[in-house]
Amino acid sequence: MSRDFLKMHGLGNDFVVIDARTAPYAPTAQEVRAIADRKTGVGCDQFIVIEPPVQPGSQGFMRIRNADGGEVGACGNAARCVGWLLMTEAGTRRTLFEMPSGLVEATLGDGTVTVDMGPARLAWNEIPLASAMDTLHLPVDVAGLPAPVAVSMGNPHCVFIVDDADAVDVAALGPGLEHHPLFPERTNVEFISVISPTAIRMRVWERGAGITRACGTGSCAAWVAAVRRGLVGCRGDVVLDGGTLTIEWRDDGRVLMTGPVAVPFRGTLSDALA
Q1: Domain check: are 144 and 70 in the same one?
Q2: Which of 73, 76, 147, 169 might form a disulfide with 154, Cβ 3.0–4.6 angstroms?
Q3: Which of 44, 158, 215, 220 is catalytic?
Q4: Residue among 119, 113, 31 at smallest CA distance from 74
Q5: 236 and 164: one domain?
Q6: Residue 65: phi, psi to the nearest 5?
C-alpha cells in the first residue's frame, strides 16, 4: 500500500515523516534503508513514523529510525518537526508527544519551535558506557584530540572539545568512534570549539547516518559538555553546518532546544518503497 509522506528538515537535518496514527505502518529495516537512499529513494537522515499515543495527554508517539534502518531513542530536530506538525494540526501553540526516550513538550514561537528534551543523563550506565568511569574525561585515545565528554540525551554522545572544529576530519574519525568499544550501543560523535561564553561551533557524525548538517540531541549534548567543562553559560547558540540552534540547560537539569522547521515537499511513496 502506498503511503503519503512529508519531507521535513531542521537546519538541513532531514526526515521522511509518515503519519500512522490511523493506519499502522511498521517498515522493515530494509524498507527504511530504501526510502532513505538519496539516489533511489526519497533520501533522509532519519525516518519518522507518528504512531498513536501511549501516555494520557500525548498527541502521538514518534518512532525514529536512522538511515541505516536501526531504531533509536531520540532525535531533537525531528522532535521540533513533529511538534510543529501536531501544533499546526490542532491550531495550538503547545503540544505533548512521546519519543522512546520519554515525553516531549513542544511550544511554537515566532518562526521557531522549542522542545523540552528532558534531563541530560551523565552517569556512565545511563549513556551507556561499557564500564564505570568518569564521563567528563573519557579514556578515548585519538591522536591529537583531548579526552572527550559523554552525555546522553536519550541517545549516546561523545563530545570532543577542540581548538577548531572546522579543522577536524570528521569523515575519517567518525566511523571508528561511532563503533568504539566503550559504547555498547554505538555513539554519536560531536566536535566542538568555543566561540564565546554564549556560542560554540559544532560538527557532527551521527550514529547510523554519518555526517549531517545539524543534530538536535548532539547540540544539546555538546552544550551540556561545554557547561560541565566550565567553558560556557547555561544558555547560548550552537553554530552548525546548516544553521544555529539555541540551547538552554536549566537548573532542574532539563535541556531546551529552539530552532526553525521547514517542509520542502509532500509526496507519496510508491508501492516498491512503501
Answers
A1: no
A2: 73
A3: 215
A4: 119
A5: yes
A6: -125, 135
Cβ-count burial of 112 within 10 angstroms (0-12 exposed, 13-18 middle, 19+ buried)? Answer: middle
Q: How far apart are CA 48 and CA 84, in angstroms?
A: 14
- Alpha-carbon distance of 255 to 248, in angstroms, equals 6
How does the average pLDDT of the chain come out, rounded?
A: 96
44, 75, 81, 220: the active-site residue = 75
CATH number for the domain spanning 72: value is: 3.10.310.10
Is the pLDDT confidence value at 197 over 70?
yes
Grid cell at residue 185 = 550501543
- The Cα-based distances of 154 to 75, 117, 138, 216 in angstroms read 8, 8, 19, 12
Residues 6+ apart with CB under 8 A from 170: 189, 191, 203, 204, 205, 211
Is 158 catalytic? The answer is no
The pTM for the full model equals 0.95
Note whether residue 274 is domain-resident. Answer: no
Residue 273 lies in a domain: no
Which residues constitute the domain of residue 110? 3-118+260-268
DSSP SS3 for 170: helix
Q: Are residues 63 and 162 in the same domain?
A: no
* Tens-digit pLDDT profile for residues 198-235: 999 999 999 999 999 999 999 999 999 999 999 999 99
How many domains are contained in the chain? 2
pLDDT reported for residue 1: 66
Cα separation, 76 vs 69, whole angstroms: 18
pLDDT tens profile 118-165: 999 999 999 999 999 999 999 999 988 999 999 999 999 999 999 999
Q: Is 234 annotated in the active site?
A: no
